[in-house]
Design a protein that fits this description.
By secondary structure, the chain is α/β, with parallel strands linked by helices. The chain contains 14 helices and 13 strands. Helix content is about 45%, strand content about 15%. The longest helix is centred in the middle third of the chain and has 27 residues, at about 245-275.
Length: about 425
């Protein structure tokens, strides 16, 4: 069948087009539906949605973000008027669960929502930490103010490890594995040989170390990918990014992603067992050389260095092996002392700019942050801090790193402007 999305997927996988032409996690991406088989629709959005027509009504896998829920609803309703019978959450992240409200507002009324048993706990945690999560989003996506939703639609039915459901003549096999989240579900439709991976496959280096989010599970994620690779699926529908067709190709991308994670995990654990500090590990461990060029493993959202930190956090705790950081002095106290030794905060800022211009962005970041803490009201230092972190944001590829560094740039821009206006 003709498919624009599958054609584009093929072009990216074969190298005919560069993966940078189609970022898999673009918040500005409009929702657009494409039918990939009789009664099977794929809505590409920031978070993808899968819709299946059955004899009992519509079944959807995931429900999109609050920002895209209306467009997702419109796209699906332009395709079918079947009432929503069941929605399956692949996990409880907010970009996967919100279009349900659009469908339940229809005259047909409530649907049946199925998810892993840990999803309700996630929703309760989100309500408890709404302010913190809003600030994460503001920083990560450069928003004007903190933003995080409330009003989650809790599941009607939950399961622990596996659940097979038959709806209107179509079988949905739900399986739980921890990976990006502790509440993950992947779904297989055996008659159609369709695999819905949720965020266990996202057309990018796995989001397994996000520095501002809860724990992820590298080794279990790899095991889940290995399971999926044995199914013989002929159509892979991911939580983010493009669909992939062809059993051999699907098996290949799943096994490559598994090996990528397994390598990061094995290297990290080996160095932990050898007594290495976290600092040495994050500057040593790298993905397998033959996988770094894969178009579906590019570090455009998360990145391997952060995955290593996540493995350490899960298996080694928060102490990084440096005794000075076990019970450290306040950052501002250390910064003031370093500035005094260096000859003043201005000297630290000057050296930070030199390092930045020479491409030594990591060192520049340390020096300028100390300068800013040692002299928090100085306009010139905030101008330098803005320049240093702006350059670092430009040099990074991952959304995670870009977001943090660009936010620091914005902070100092605002502080410098406020100092100018106060003069």
């Amino acid at each position: 069948m003709d498919s624009h999305l599958l054609d584009l997927s093929d072009q990216l996988l074969t190298g005919a087009r560069d993966v940078s032409d189609h970022h898999p996690l673009n918040m500005a991406s409009p929702a657009r539906l494409e039918e990939l088989g009789p009664g099977l629709a794929f809505v590409e959005s920031f978070c993808n949605v899968i819709a299946v027509e059955t004899d009992q009504g519509l079944v959807m896998v995931d429900g999109g973000s609050p920002m895209h829920a209306g467009a997702i609803h419109s796209e699906i309703r332009a395709w079918t008027q079947q009432p929503l019978h069941t929605m399956i959450y692949t996990h409880g992240h907010v970009d996967h669960v919100f279009a349900i409200s659009q469908f339940e507002a229809e005259a047909t009324g409530p649907a049946h929502v199925v998810a892993h048993e840990a999803v309700p706990d996630r929703f309760r945690r989100y309500d408890r930490t709404n302010g913190y999560n809003g600030r994460i989003n503001q920083r990560q996506f450069q928003l004007g103010s903190p933003l995080f939703p409330t009003g989650f639609r809790y599941p009607d039915e939950t399961y622990r490890s596996s659940l097979d459901v038959e709806i209107g003549g179509c079988e949905f096999r739900l399986r739980h594995d921890r990976g990006e989240t502790d509440d993950g579900t992947w779904i297989y439709l055996p008659e159609r040989k369709v695999l819905c991976t949720g965020d266990l496959f996202i057309w990018a280096s796995p989001n397994c170390g996000n520095p501002q989010k809860a724990q992820r599970y590298c080794d279990e994620w790899a095991a889940a990918l290995r399971k999926m690779a044995t199914l013989g699926a002929e159509l892979l529908l991911p939580g983010h990014g493009l669909p992939i067709a062809g059993a051999a190709r699907i098996q290949g991308v799943l096994e490559d992603t598994a090996r990528y994670l397994e390598s990061l995990f094995d290297q990290t654990i080996e160095m932990m067992n050898a007594g290495c500090r976290l600092d040495e590990i994050i500057h040593t461990v790298t993905p397998p050389a033959d996988l770094v060029g894969r178009p579906f493993l590019q570090p455009v959202y998360d990145e391997p260095e952060f995955v290593v930190r996540g493995i350490w956090r899960l298996y080694g705790g928060w102490y990084d092996g440096n005794p000075a950081t076990l019970k450290p002095a306040p950052d501002t106290t250390l910064a003031a002392e370093i500035a005094r030794l260096a000859g003043g905060a201005d000297r630290l800022a000057e050296r930070a700019l030199e390092c930045s211009e020479n491409g030594e962005h990591r060192l520049a970041g340390h020096l300028i942050e100390m300068a800013g803490m040692a002299s928090p009201e100085a306009r010139e230092i905030h101008q330098a801090r803005s320049a240093v972190f702006g350059a670092r944001a430009q040099a990074e590829r991952s959304t995670m790193a870009k977001g943090v560094f660009a936010w620091a740039e914005r902070e100092s821009n605002d502080r410098a402007q406020a100092a100018i206006e106060a003069d």
